[in-house]
Amino acid sequence: MVIVTKTTIERQKLDTMVQDFRNLGLEVDIIEGTGSIVLGLIGDTHQLDADRLLLDPDIERIMRVQEPFKKASRKFHPEATVIDVNGVSIGDGKSFVVMAGPCSVETEEQILTVAKSVKSNGASILRGGAYKPRTSPYSFQGLELEGLELLKKARKETGLPIVTEIMCPSLVEVFNENVDIIQVGARNMQNFDLLKELGKIEKPILLKRGLSATIEEWLMSAEYIMAGGNHNVILCERGIRTFETYTRNTLDLSAIPAVKKLSHLPVVVDPSHSAGMSWMVEPLSLAAMAVGADGIIVEVHNDPKNALCDGAQSLDLDQYGALMDKLGNMSVHFGKKCYKI
Ligand code: PEP
Ligand code: MN
Q1: Among 131, 112, 128, CA closest to 120
Q2: Ligand 1 atom showing the smallest separation from residue 103 Cα
Q3: Each residue's pLDDT expressed in tens, for the chain with a length of 341 residues
Q4: Angle between the 281-290 and 317-334 helix axes, to the nearest 10 degrees?
Q5: Alpha carbon nearest to ligand 1 atom 6, residue
Q6: Which atom of ligand 1 has the smallest separation from the CA of 133?
Q7: I need a labelling partner for 86 at 20 to 30 A (CA). Which of 161, 246, 294, 334 fits?
Q8: Whose CA is nearest to atom 1 of ligand 1?
Protein backbone atom coordinates (compact mmCIF):
# COMPACT_ATOMS: atom_id res chain seq x y z
CA MET A 1 0.00 0.00 0.00
CA VAL A 2 1.18 3.53 -0.75
CA ILE A 3 0.10 6.45 1.42
CA VAL A 4 0.66 10.01 0.25
CA THR A 5 0.60 12.61 2.99
CA LYS A 6 0.68 16.37 2.81
CA THR A 7 4.11 17.91 3.29
CA THR A 8 2.56 20.13 5.96
CA ILE A 9 2.02 17.13 8.25
CA GLU A 10 3.66 17.67 11.64
CA ARG A 11 6.84 15.66 12.03
CA GLN A 12 5.71 14.17 15.32
CA LYS A 13 2.41 13.04 13.83
CA LEU A 14 4.20 11.47 10.88
CA ASP A 15 6.60 9.63 13.21
CA THR A 16 3.68 8.29 15.28
CA MET A 17 1.85 7.20 12.16
CA VAL A 18 4.94 5.37 10.87
CA GLN A 19 5.48 3.73 14.27
CA ASP A 20 1.84 2.57 14.37
CA PHE A 21 2.28 0.87 11.00
CA ARG A 22 5.55 -0.73 12.14
CA ASN A 23 3.82 -2.00 15.29
CA LEU A 24 1.45 -3.85 12.98
CA GLY A 25 4.44 -5.69 11.56
CA LEU A 26 4.65 -3.62 8.37
CA GLU A 27 7.85 -2.36 6.81
CA VAL A 28 7.59 1.37 6.07
CA ASP A 29 9.76 3.18 3.57
CA ILE A 30 9.53 6.96 3.55
CA ILE A 31 10.21 9.01 0.44
CA GLU A 32 10.17 12.75 0.93
CA GLY A 33 9.53 14.58 -2.34
CA THR A 34 9.06 18.30 -2.82
CA GLY A 35 5.29 18.11 -3.22
CA SER A 36 4.42 15.19 -0.95
CA ILE A 37 5.65 12.56 1.46
CA VAL A 38 5.12 8.99 0.32
CA LEU A 39 4.94 6.06 2.72
CA GLY A 40 5.48 2.66 1.11
CA LEU A 41 3.94 -0.03 3.30
CA ILE A 42 5.21 -3.54 2.73
CA GLY A 43 3.66 -6.59 4.36
CA ASP A 44 0.09 -7.67 5.02
CA THR A 45 -1.76 -4.39 4.49
CA HIS A 46 -5.15 -6.06 4.35
CA GLN A 47 -5.50 -5.34 8.04
CA LEU A 48 -5.66 -1.60 7.23
CA ASP A 49 -8.94 0.15 6.46
CA ALA A 50 -8.09 2.65 3.72
CA ASP A 51 -11.41 4.51 4.06
CA ARG A 52 -10.81 5.14 7.73
CA LEU A 53 -7.24 6.25 7.15
CA LEU A 54 -8.48 8.75 4.58
CA LEU A 55 -10.50 10.51 7.27
CA ASP A 56 -7.18 11.94 8.44
CA PRO A 57 -6.87 15.39 6.83
CA ASP A 58 -3.10 14.98 6.54
CA ILE A 59 -3.52 11.95 4.27
CA GLU A 60 -4.00 12.96 0.67
CA ARG A 61 -4.22 9.66 -1.17
CA ILE A 62 -4.01 5.92 -0.65
CA MET A 63 -3.19 3.43 -3.36
CA ARG A 64 -3.16 -0.29 -3.11
CA VAL A 65 -0.23 -1.66 -5.06
CA GLN A 66 -1.48 -4.63 -6.95
CA GLU A 67 1.82 -5.71 -8.42
CA PRO A 68 3.77 -8.21 -6.36
CA PHE A 69 6.86 -6.02 -6.75
CA LYS A 70 6.82 -3.02 -4.45
CA LYS A 71 10.27 -1.50 -4.17
CA ALA A 72 10.61 -1.68 -7.96
CA SER A 73 7.16 -0.21 -8.52
CA ARG A 74 6.59 3.31 -9.78
CA LYS A 75 3.46 3.55 -7.68
CA PHE A 76 5.63 3.21 -4.63
CA HIS A 77 8.40 5.46 -5.92
CA PRO A 78 7.01 7.87 -8.54
CA GLU A 79 10.29 9.63 -9.28
CA ALA A 80 12.70 7.98 -11.69
CA THR A 81 15.73 6.35 -10.11
CA VAL A 82 18.95 7.83 -11.43
CA ILE A 83 22.05 5.72 -10.97
CA ASP A 84 25.42 7.39 -10.86
CA VAL A 85 28.33 5.29 -12.03
CA ASN A 86 31.54 7.24 -11.45
CA GLY A 87 29.93 10.39 -12.82
CA VAL A 88 27.89 8.69 -15.59
CA SER A 89 24.24 9.19 -14.85
CA ILE A 90 21.86 6.44 -15.97
CA GLY A 91 18.10 7.01 -15.98
CA ASP A 92 18.05 10.81 -15.70
CA GLY A 93 15.82 11.13 -18.77
CA LYS A 94 18.32 13.54 -20.33
CA SER A 95 21.09 11.25 -21.46
CA PHE A 96 21.32 8.13 -23.58
CA VAL A 97 24.16 6.11 -22.12
CA VAL A 98 26.19 3.83 -24.37
CA MET A 99 28.00 0.85 -22.88
CA ALA A 100 30.21 -0.79 -25.47
CA GLY A 101 32.91 -3.43 -25.73
CA PRO A 102 33.56 -7.02 -26.68
CA CYS A 103 31.45 -9.98 -25.68
CA SER A 104 34.50 -11.41 -23.91
CA VAL A 105 37.84 -10.10 -22.85
CA GLU A 106 40.36 -12.09 -24.93
CA THR A 107 43.76 -10.44 -24.72
CA GLU A 108 45.26 -7.26 -23.35
CA GLU A 109 45.73 -5.87 -26.83
CA GLN A 110 42.14 -6.63 -27.79
CA ILE A 111 40.49 -5.04 -24.77
CA LEU A 112 42.75 -1.97 -24.81
CA THR A 113 42.22 -1.41 -28.54
CA VAL A 114 38.45 -1.71 -28.26
CA ALA A 115 38.27 0.35 -25.06
CA LYS A 116 40.27 3.25 -26.53
CA SER A 117 38.30 3.20 -29.74
CA VAL A 118 34.83 3.12 -28.18
CA LYS A 119 35.88 5.81 -25.73
CA SER A 120 36.97 8.11 -28.55
CA ASN A 121 33.62 7.43 -30.21
CA GLY A 122 31.48 8.39 -27.26
CA ALA A 123 30.98 5.29 -25.11
CA SER A 124 30.53 6.09 -21.42
CA ILE A 125 31.02 2.59 -20.05
CA LEU A 126 33.15 -0.35 -21.17
CA ARG A 127 31.60 -3.82 -21.32
CA GLY A 128 33.50 -7.10 -21.50
CA GLY A 129 32.88 -10.61 -20.21
CA ALA A 130 35.46 -12.29 -17.98
CA TYR A 131 33.19 -15.15 -16.88
CA LYS A 132 31.13 -16.39 -19.81
CA PRO A 133 27.90 -18.38 -19.57
CA ARG A 134 28.33 -20.49 -22.71
CA THR A 135 25.75 -22.96 -23.98
CA SER A 136 28.51 -25.49 -24.69
CA PRO A 137 31.06 -26.49 -22.05
CA TYR A 138 33.59 -26.82 -24.89
CA SER A 139 33.31 -23.14 -25.89
CA PHE A 140 35.63 -20.43 -24.56
CA GLN A 141 34.62 -19.85 -20.94
CA GLY A 142 36.33 -16.51 -20.42
CA LEU A 143 39.63 -15.44 -18.86
CA GLU A 144 38.00 -15.21 -15.44
CA LEU A 145 40.16 -13.34 -12.89
CA GLU A 146 42.75 -12.48 -15.52
CA GLY A 147 39.91 -10.97 -17.56
CA LEU A 148 38.91 -8.78 -14.61
CA GLU A 149 42.49 -7.56 -14.31
CA LEU A 150 42.57 -6.67 -18.01
CA LEU A 151 39.28 -4.79 -17.68
CA LYS A 152 40.76 -2.83 -14.78
CA LYS A 153 43.77 -1.99 -16.91
CA ALA A 154 41.45 -0.74 -19.67
CA ARG A 155 39.55 1.33 -17.11
CA LYS A 156 42.81 2.85 -15.89
CA GLU A 157 43.92 3.76 -19.40
CA THR A 158 40.60 5.16 -20.61
CA GLY A 159 38.78 6.27 -17.48
CA LEU A 160 35.72 4.28 -18.59
CA PRO A 161 33.82 2.51 -15.80
CA ILE A 162 33.50 -1.24 -16.41
CA VAL A 163 30.50 -3.59 -16.52
CA THR A 164 30.98 -7.34 -16.49
CA GLU A 165 28.94 -10.45 -15.80
CA ILE A 166 28.88 -12.42 -12.57
CA MET A 167 27.67 -16.01 -12.46
CA CYS A 168 27.91 -17.24 -8.88
CA PRO A 169 27.39 -15.86 -5.39
CA SER A 170 30.90 -16.72 -4.23
CA LEU A 171 32.31 -14.04 -6.56
CA VAL A 172 30.22 -11.15 -5.24
CA GLU A 173 33.01 -9.84 -3.01
CA VAL A 174 35.61 -9.86 -5.78
CA PHE A 175 33.23 -8.18 -8.22
CA ASN A 176 32.16 -5.63 -5.64
CA GLU A 177 35.77 -4.62 -5.11
CA ASN A 178 36.82 -4.55 -8.72
CA VAL A 179 34.03 -3.53 -11.11
CA ASP A 180 31.68 -0.56 -11.46
CA ILE A 181 28.49 -2.31 -12.57
CA ILE A 182 27.83 -6.00 -11.98
CA GLN A 183 25.90 -7.65 -14.80
CA VAL A 184 23.48 -10.48 -14.11
CA GLY A 185 23.02 -12.35 -17.37
CA ALA A 186 19.78 -13.61 -18.85
CA ARG A 187 20.55 -17.15 -17.74
CA ASN A 188 20.95 -16.07 -14.13
CA MET A 189 18.00 -13.71 -13.87
CA GLN A 190 16.32 -16.17 -11.52
CA ASN A 191 19.43 -17.32 -9.68
CA PHE A 192 17.84 -16.21 -6.44
CA ASP A 193 20.84 -17.01 -4.23
CA LEU A 194 22.93 -14.74 -6.44
CA LEU A 195 20.29 -11.99 -6.40
CA LYS A 196 20.08 -12.14 -2.60
CA GLU A 197 23.85 -11.73 -2.28
CA LEU A 198 23.77 -8.78 -4.69
CA GLY A 199 21.09 -7.23 -2.50
CA LYS A 200 23.58 -6.96 0.33
CA ILE A 201 25.95 -4.61 -1.50
CA GLU A 202 25.46 -1.15 -2.97
CA LYS A 203 27.09 -1.65 -6.34
CA PRO A 204 24.87 -0.94 -9.38
CA ILE A 205 23.49 -4.14 -10.90
CA LEU A 206 22.62 -4.51 -14.59
CA LEU A 207 19.83 -7.08 -14.53
CA LYS A 208 19.19 -8.68 -17.89
CA ARG A 209 15.77 -10.05 -18.73
CA GLY A 210 15.68 -13.85 -18.73
CA LEU A 211 15.31 -15.68 -22.03
CA SER A 212 11.70 -16.60 -21.31
CA ALA A 213 10.87 -14.22 -18.49
CA THR A 214 7.72 -12.14 -18.38
CA ILE A 215 8.04 -8.48 -17.47
CA GLU A 216 6.60 -9.28 -14.05
CA GLU A 217 9.12 -12.07 -13.41
CA TRP A 218 11.90 -9.72 -14.45
CA LEU A 219 10.72 -7.02 -12.07
CA MET A 220 10.38 -9.61 -9.32
CA SER A 221 14.06 -10.43 -9.80
CA ALA A 222 14.84 -6.72 -9.41
CA GLU A 223 12.70 -6.85 -6.28
CA TYR A 224 14.92 -9.62 -4.88
CA ILE A 225 17.97 -7.36 -5.15
CA MET A 226 16.11 -4.34 -3.81
CA ALA A 227 14.53 -6.26 -0.94
CA GLY A 228 18.05 -6.90 0.35
CA GLY A 229 18.73 -3.16 0.39
CA ASN A 230 20.44 -2.55 -2.94
CA HIS A 231 18.24 -0.15 -4.90
CA ASN A 232 20.78 0.43 -7.67
CA VAL A 233 19.25 -1.78 -10.31
CA ILE A 234 19.41 -1.10 -14.05
CA LEU A 235 17.14 -3.29 -16.16
CA CYS A 236 18.28 -4.59 -19.53
CA GLU A 237 15.99 -5.88 -22.27
CA ARG A 238 18.06 -8.27 -24.41
CA GLY A 239 15.44 -10.07 -26.44
CA ILE A 240 13.29 -13.00 -25.49
CA ARG A 241 12.71 -16.42 -26.97
CA THR A 242 9.73 -16.63 -29.29
CA PHE A 243 8.69 -18.89 -32.17
CA GLU A 244 10.71 -16.67 -34.55
CA THR A 245 14.08 -18.13 -35.49
CA TYR A 246 15.30 -15.52 -37.97
CA THR A 247 16.81 -13.44 -35.19
CA ARG A 248 18.74 -14.89 -32.24
CA ASN A 249 16.03 -13.52 -29.93
CA THR A 250 13.04 -11.26 -30.40
CA LEU A 251 13.71 -7.76 -29.09
CA ASP A 252 10.66 -6.87 -27.05
CA LEU A 253 10.62 -3.13 -27.70
CA SER A 254 7.25 -2.79 -26.04
CA ALA A 255 8.85 -3.87 -22.78
CA ILE A 256 10.63 -0.51 -22.56
CA PRO A 257 7.55 1.74 -22.27
CA ALA A 258 5.86 -0.99 -20.20
CA VAL A 259 8.70 -1.11 -17.69
CA LYS A 260 8.94 2.69 -17.64
CA LYS A 261 5.27 2.79 -16.67
CA LEU A 262 5.48 0.02 -14.09
CA SER A 263 8.83 0.85 -12.56
CA HIS A 264 11.07 3.79 -11.68
CA LEU A 265 14.25 1.87 -12.52
CA PRO A 266 16.40 2.77 -15.53
CA VAL A 267 16.14 0.44 -18.50
CA VAL A 268 18.63 -0.14 -21.30
CA VAL A 269 18.53 -2.28 -24.43
CA ASP A 270 21.03 -4.87 -25.65
CA PRO A 271 20.58 -4.85 -29.44
CA SER A 272 23.44 -7.33 -29.97
CA HIS A 273 22.04 -10.38 -28.17
CA SER A 274 18.57 -9.49 -29.41
CA ALA A 275 19.55 -9.60 -33.06
CA GLY A 276 22.45 -12.02 -33.22
CA MET A 277 23.52 -10.27 -36.45
CA SER A 278 25.71 -7.18 -36.59
CA TRP A 279 23.82 -5.50 -39.43
CA MET A 280 20.67 -5.34 -37.35
CA VAL A 281 22.33 -3.71 -34.34
CA GLU A 282 22.07 -0.17 -35.70
CA PRO A 283 18.31 -0.09 -36.42
CA LEU A 284 17.56 -1.77 -33.10
CA SER A 285 19.74 0.75 -31.25
CA LEU A 286 17.92 3.65 -32.89
CA ALA A 287 14.61 1.99 -32.02
CA ALA A 288 15.76 1.69 -28.40
CA MET A 289 16.26 5.44 -28.24
CA ALA A 290 12.90 6.04 -29.91
CA VAL A 291 10.96 3.97 -27.38
CA GLY A 292 12.53 5.74 -24.42
CA ALA A 293 15.35 3.49 -23.25
CA ASP A 294 18.01 5.10 -21.07
CA GLY A 295 20.79 3.63 -23.17
CA ILE A 296 22.20 0.57 -24.84
CA ILE A 297 24.82 -2.07 -24.14
CA VAL A 298 26.39 -3.08 -27.42
CA GLU A 299 29.05 -5.59 -28.47
CA VAL A 300 32.04 -4.15 -30.34
CA HIS A 301 35.16 -6.05 -31.43
CA ASN A 302 38.34 -4.99 -33.24
CA ASP A 303 38.24 -8.20 -35.31
CA PRO A 304 34.72 -9.68 -35.22
CA LYS A 305 35.52 -12.49 -37.67
CA ASN A 306 38.03 -13.94 -35.22
CA ALA A 307 36.19 -13.15 -31.99
CA LEU A 308 36.13 -15.99 -29.46
CA CYS A 309 32.50 -15.28 -28.67
CA ASP A 310 29.56 -13.65 -30.49
CA GLY A 311 31.56 -12.31 -33.45
CA ALA A 312 28.54 -12.44 -35.77
CA GLN A 313 26.65 -9.90 -33.72
CA SER A 314 29.63 -7.66 -32.91
CA LEU A 315 30.14 -4.32 -34.60
CA ASP A 316 33.64 -3.56 -35.80
CA LEU A 317 35.22 -0.29 -34.70
CA ASP A 318 34.08 1.65 -37.77
CA GLN A 319 30.54 0.33 -37.61
CA TYR A 320 30.42 1.41 -34.00
CA GLY A 321 31.57 4.91 -34.97
CA ALA A 322 28.84 5.07 -37.63
CA LEU A 323 26.23 3.95 -35.11
CA MET A 324 27.29 6.71 -32.73
CA ASP A 325 26.94 9.29 -35.51
CA LYS A 326 23.35 8.22 -36.09
CA LEU A 327 22.51 8.06 -32.40
CA GLY A 328 24.03 11.50 -31.95
CA ASN A 329 21.88 12.96 -34.73
CA MET A 330 18.76 11.28 -33.45
CA SER A 331 19.36 12.35 -29.87
CA VAL A 332 18.85 15.99 -30.90
CA HIS A 333 15.21 15.21 -31.75
CA PHE A 334 14.66 13.34 -28.52
CA GLY A 335 16.32 15.98 -26.36
CA LYS A 336 18.80 13.49 -24.99
CA LYS A 337 22.51 13.87 -24.55
CA CYS A 338 24.45 11.38 -26.62
CA TYR A 339 27.91 11.73 -28.07
CA LYS A 340 28.52 13.62 -31.35
CA ILE A 341 25.91 16.32 -31.04
C1 PEP B 1 26.51 -10.99 -22.60
O2 PEP B 1 26.16 -9.84 -22.34
O3 PEP B 1 27.62 -11.26 -23.08
C4 PEP B 1 25.54 -12.09 -22.41
C5 PEP B 1 25.93 -13.35 -22.25
O6 PEP B 1 24.27 -11.66 -22.47
P7 PEP B 1 22.88 -12.42 -22.12
O8 PEP B 1 22.96 -12.80 -20.68
O9 PEP B 1 21.86 -11.36 -22.41
O10 PEP B 1 22.77 -13.60 -23.04
MN1 MN C 1 27.80 -11.90 -26.01
Answers
A1: 112
A2: 3
A3: 999 999 899 999 999 999 999 999 999 999 988 788 999 999 888 788 889 999 999 999 999 877 889 999 998 899 999 999 999 999 999 999 999 999 999 999 999 999 999 999 999 999 999 999 999 999 999 999 999 999 999 999 999 999 999 999 999 999 999 999 999 999 999 999 999 999 999 999 999 999 999 999 999 999 999 999 999 999 999 999 999 999 999 999 999 999 999 999 999 999 999 999 999 999 999 999 999 999 999 999 999 999 999 999 999 999 999 999 999 999 999 999 886 54
A4: 20
A5: 185
A6: 5
A7: 334
A8: 103
Distance in Å, CA 310 to ligand 2 centroid: 5
Q: What is the 3-state secondary structure (H, E, C) of 224-247?
A: HHHHCCCCCEEEEECCECCCCCCC
Mutate to test the pocket of ligand 1, among 106, 134, 183, 268 (most ligand atoms within 8 A of CB): 183
The letter for the amino acid at 304 is P
Pair 232, 208: CB distance under 8 Å = no
Nearest to 71 by CA among 184, 237, 233, 235: 233
pTM beyond 0.85: yes
Cβ(328)–Cβ(339) under 8 Å?
Answer: yes
Ligand at minimal distance from the CA of 239 is 1
Residue nearest to atom 10 of ligand 1 (CA): 186
Give the pocket of ligand 1 (CB within 6 Å): 103, 129, 133, 185-187, 208, 238, 270, 273
Residue nearest to ligand 1 atom 9, measured at CA: 186
